[in-house]
Amino acid sequence: xxxxxxxxxxxxxxxxxxxxxxxxxxxxxxxxxxxxxxxxxxxxxxxxxxxxxxxxxxxxxxxxxxxxxxxxxxxxxxxxxxxxxxxxxxxxxxxxxxxxxxxxxxxxxxxxxxxxxxxxxxxxxxxxxxxxxxxxxxxxxxxxxxxxxxxxxxxxxxxxxxxxxxxxxxxxxxxxxxxxxxxxxxxxxxxxxxxxxxxxxxxxxxxxxxxxxxxxxxxxxxxxxxxxxxxxxxxxxxxxxxxxxxxxxxxxxxxxxxxxxxxxxx
Length: 266
Known about the structure:
Helix 1 (3-24) packs across helix 2. The termini are far apart. Helix content is 27%, strand content 25%. The strands form two sheets. Strands 1, 2, 3, 4, 5, 8 and 9 form a seven-stranded mixed beta sheet that branches. It contains six helices and eleven strands. It has helices at 3-24, 40-56, 71-77, 127-133, 155-160, 209-222; strands at 61-67, 83-88, 108-117, 134-144, 167-170, 186-190, 196-201, 232-234, 242-243, 249-254, 258-263. The protein is of the alpha+beta class.
């Protein structure tokens, strides 16, 4: 058996393990143990298999999410760059409708800025072209999830697992990006008892959420899957993620951007 064949079979095996965890609702062991190398590219190869399988099932890609935008989290996983995952049409949850927690395995929630693109982002993207491509921004809550038991993840595991994606909720207020300095956005997230469970600023997201968008646009273009008009891009967290509690309600307020709420079933 050649190294190439071994690598291909390992990637497929890792994808199958993650798919079984999702379908059975039973978290699995880390997939890194199945892979002959622990390279970031191998993680994306697994993610691509999962993406293609979902497309074959009839789902649509509606955008991307950026992860690992916090320097603290990067240090924990021993990396110096963000990662990204794919948003599908069945991951968006309408604000105001309770989210069924049985759809999730080990959910956590974090507040972000969502960029909705009005035009494609290809080629040599910089801050100016990224800002020009954004049709509007909205406050967002991302419900991250891991198919891997107890969140025992390395960078390869989380990339393979679609960057630990789960669901997302967009707020109702559509705000023009313009020249707004998103580093100064202040985020506060409270629970149903008005207890503050997370807080932070735009600067916590790779120094500037626009920098995260530029990174994603360049990376996606290099991989041959550029960002397109209509895509939703989740910026990455503005503060710490927190575990989702059954029957919990979480409301995030982002200054200058708006508010967004997610409620969960028992």
